Amino acid sequence: MDKSISLKGQLSTRLQENETLLQQALGGSTDLVKKKLILGENIELILFFIDGLVDTGILHNSILYSLTERGFSEFDEPEKMDAAQKLQLLKDCILMAGDITEIADYDKLLHDLLSGCIILLLEGASTALRIALPGWEDRNVSEPSSQSVVRGPMEGFTERLRTNTALIRRKIKDRHLWLETFQIGKVTQTDVAIMYLDNVVNAEIVAEVKRRLAKIDTDSILESGYIEEFIQDTAASPFPTIYNSDRPDTIAAGILEGKVAILVDGTPFVLLVPSFFLNFFQSAEDYYQRADIATLLRFIRYLAFFIALLAPALYIAITTYHQEMIPSTLVISLAAQRETVPFPAFVEAMLMEVIYEVLREAGVRIPKNIGQAISIVGTLVIGQAAVEAGFISSAMVIIVSVTAISSFVLPETGMSIAVRIIRFVLMALGAFMGLFGILFGLFIIVLHLAGLRSFGMPYMSPIGPYIQSDLKDSVFRFTWPKLKTRPKQTKPANVNRQGQTGQEES
Known about the structure:
It is a single chain. This protein has 14 helices and 12 strands. β11 (453-454) and β12 form a beta hairpin. α9 (291-321) runs antiparallel to α13 (394-407), α9 (291-321) packs across α14 and α11 packs across α13 (394-407). It is α+β, with helices and mostly antiparallel strands and 506 residues long.
């Protein structure tokens, strides 16, 4: 049975009553710390904070020191002041802290207390002082783990919201970089922030982001994935329509293009909206290398995408229905390999793909100190033993291995997962209808992509609808002097990126 109480309304002027209600509201939690102080002859106050959420060093060396050593001793006849005057003196003259605000209601008091603030209650005062001194343990800024680069910044987001916003502000030192914070989750009350350039972003996108965030009605938000599922345009698609990254430079670049960043306290992964299909093939390193190298790398990623998507399906279809397309020498070699294999090509491919997915998932879950050993056993020992035992052919091992390696080329894991899902469907179509089935599946995929939207924007832009000027930084990567305008996909308020006149390129 829930014995906690819900506090509503204004604070009481009686210190004892406020203390009792606050302790009851938290169920007598043992990490609630209170310090009672008496300043002078009759000035009573209490400090409340949650142990582990507050920087106790600053608390003792600054807050408690200023109260006990200085107090009201520098002021004449403080006992004649009313409670409101005493509270104002504490806020303006006595307490050595920067972020001090007044709180008048219990709901706000509890939220700030549980967010790492110190609450000061004074006898006779109907308001309390909130002193922000968060001091929980944070992970240091380190190299991003999911989107590493050879050349470029080696700093990544952390689990602390304020650290993440600071990392973005280090990249964009402009007064038009606006930050708005919301509390989402009726129980967790998680801080969710949006950042955007007010003079660049399309105002309709900002309004749509706020509207979708306001519609979220749930008990808990523990990671940005919760937000992503609530605000995405459609859940009936394997393709990601919201980009996520743990790299500050990637998010800053998106904001500079007129997009909105969504940051969630407690996770290093930041969302970027709206996002388009070709965005998931771009890496931060594209902009730190020469333009010709970056363009080549992008085409390699496009090739890897099609290999990861189609290679097993094409092998199944050709070896099952279209052997005439294979050179005679290769046909003889494949027939000799498959002579001892008891399964058809489709079953063989499905078996290998499932085993690969199991090994991949195991490599993520098992401890790192034995992960390498499992990878060696899975890829070498099991694969070689399966070929020698006649369960699978050597050609199938090659196809699955190339497919697996190609899927790792994609910079964003969301698109890689989508490819893994669709690959199984295309394999089934190839097994039942050959190349005609694969072409039918590709036709459905293209129609599906053409109908997708990301916050109301066409997902396949700038290919469909076709925007020629945006191809210079989507399909290709032109040199920086030629990237004079921002991408027009998001319809930014300020399309000019270089120069003052800002003539648009066609």
